[in-house]
């Protein structure tokens, strides 16, 4: 007879989050909370909702950003410029544990939905303000979109080739802010558990991404040269790059120390004497002679197909990887072997989605709820805050709710 204990409930089970959110930073943060069991109520505009709904139609007719960031939420569509719509949000917040917003700077304060105002009225509430540049300083009112913040934070300056800086291929500033908002909420919940008080949480995209720039920033501030843009290569390690294989693939490898170089030289390049040659024996020497070092490695790997190259590198104990495209990621054997894919419901039917990367063994499975249609839960939520049929009908008739 199985005596194992029942699974633990989701860690945020029983918590309610209200979010006046749009785009990526706040929605991605609250999706993490939803996956961990929180009830997330998403407040959207009447005219199209979260504008990320209109970014594209790539996900079977839905916007890929929206599908990614908004599963497991309830959608209510309200006009917050109408006092009646704003009153509904305030009623929802009164029963909530967490409030999150990433409106344009100053907009939340004008509505009375900024963290300071809400936490003064509701001492147990955790209220999160996500902004581009923070609430003060000369950039406070500056428009902040992901690519712009990537530039301001210096990420673009270290990404790309020597000839061309490029932005990251993902919304790195949005994601950085989202993850600090997520962890900030969790920290504030722990504090509330010991003090009984919630409090404001402030996260700016610039400050979040500046933290992620830690290595090149500290390297530069404390005496090193500004790291060069090196494409897939590493600015201060060689060999550390992608190399073409005979079948048209590309294999990346990283030699982290001189012992590994000696193994690479002997077992893959086939020239053991390079392990002790002063021109290559140390990482500093290989960086100085990067072009010749890369030619030696490229020549050896270029004679092999990708599978054979990876097998040789693995046998030699060299860290390596295959350069995959997104179709290959979607079919990655490691994700398949670990059963990381699920299906989530959407207005157009089920779509594949990855389990969240936080795994809690012994607990209930992540709550990967449906992606909501705009206003799908409006009526239920209006009833939940105590509105009668005639009040709901009036809000709909007057264009305050949908």
What does this structure look like?
It is a single chain. With 402 residues, the protein is of the alpha/beta class. It contains 17 helices and 11 strands. The mean pLDDT is 95.
Short recap of the structure:
By secondary structure, this protein is α/β, with parallel strands linked by helices.
What tags apply to this protein structure?
17 helices, 402 residues, 11 strands, alpha/beta, 3-stranded antiparallel beta sheet
Order of helices and strands: EHEHEHEHHEHHEHHEEHHHHEHHEEHH
Beta-strand content? 5-15%
Strand order of the largest sheet: 3-2-1-4-5-6
> Which segments are poorly predicted (pLDDT under 50) over 5 or more consecutive residues?
none
Helix-and-strand structural type: alpha/beta
Give the helix level as a range of percent: 25-40%
Termini distance?
A: 52 Å
Mean pLDDT: 95
Biggest beta-sheet profile: 6 strands, parallel
Q: Which overall shape is indicated by the principal axes computed on the Cα atoms?
A: elongated
How many strands appear in the DSSP assignment?
A: 11
Radius of gyration: 26 Å
Counted by DSSP, the helix tally is 17
List the helices and strands and how they pair.
Blueprint: E1 16-20, H1 25-35, E2 39-44, H2 64-69, E3 73-77, H3 83-94, E4 98-101, H4 107-111, H5 115-121, E5 126-131, H6 146-152, H7 172-195, E6 199-204, H8 205-212, H9 214-221, E7 240-244, E8 250-254, H10 258-269, H11 283-288, H12 290-302, H13 306-315, E9 319-322, H14 326-330, H15 333-337, E10 341-344, E11 351-354, H16 378-384, H17 389-397
Parallel strand pairs: 1-2, 1-4, 2-3, 4-5, 5-6
Antiparallel strand pairs: 7-8, 8-9, 10-11
Helix pairs in contact: 1-7, 7-8
């Amino acid at each position: 007879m199985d005596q194992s204990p029942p699974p633990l409930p989701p860690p945020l089970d029983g918590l309610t989050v209200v979010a006046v959110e749009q785009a990526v930073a706040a929605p991605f943060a609250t999706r993490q909370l939803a996956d961990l069991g929180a009830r997330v109520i998403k407040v959207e505009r009447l005219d199209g909702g979260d504008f990320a709904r209109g970014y594209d139609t790539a996900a079977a007719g839905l916007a890929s950003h929206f599908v990614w960031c908004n599963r497991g939420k309830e959608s209510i569509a309200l006009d917050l410029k109408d006092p009646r719509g704003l009153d509904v949000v305030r009623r929802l917040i009164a029963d909530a544990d967490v409030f999150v917003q990433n409106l344009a700077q100053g907009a939340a304060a004008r509505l009375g939905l900024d963290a300071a105002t809400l936490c003064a009225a509701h001492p147990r509430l955790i209220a999160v303000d996500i902004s581009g540049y923070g609430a003060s300083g000369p950039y406070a009112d500056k428009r902040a979109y992901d690519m712009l913040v990537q530039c301001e934070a210096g990420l673009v300056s270290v990404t790309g080739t020597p000839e061309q800086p490029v932005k990251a291929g993902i919304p790195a500033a949005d994601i950085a802010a989202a993850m600090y908002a997520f962890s900030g909420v969790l920290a504030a919940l722990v504090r509330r558990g010991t003090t009984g008080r919630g409090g404001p949480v402030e996260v700016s995209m610039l400050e979040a991404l500046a933290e992620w720039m830690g290595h090149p920033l500290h390297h530069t501030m404390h005496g090193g040269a500004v790291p060069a843009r090196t494409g897939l290569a590493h600015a201060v390690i060689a060999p550390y790059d992608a190399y073409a294989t005979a079948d048209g693939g590309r294999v990346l490898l990283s030699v982290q120390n001189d012992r590994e170089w000696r193994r690479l030289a002997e077992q893959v390049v086939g020239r053991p004497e390079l392990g002790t040659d002063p021109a290559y024996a140390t990482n500093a020497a290989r960086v100085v002679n990067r072009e010749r070092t890369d030619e030696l490695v490229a020549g050896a790997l270029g004679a092999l197909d990708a599978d054979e190259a990876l097998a040789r590198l693995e046998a030699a104990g060299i860290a390596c990887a295959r350069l995959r495209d997104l179709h290959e990621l979607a079919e990655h054997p490691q994700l398949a072997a670990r059963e990381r894919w699920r299906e989530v419901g959407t207005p157009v039917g089920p779509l594949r989605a990855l389990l969240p990367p936080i795994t809690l063994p012994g607990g209930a499975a992540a709550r990967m709820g449906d992606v909501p249609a705009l206003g799908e839960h409006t009526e239920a939520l209006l009833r939940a805050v105590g509105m009668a049929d005639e009040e709901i009908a009036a809000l709909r008739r007057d264009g305050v709710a949908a």
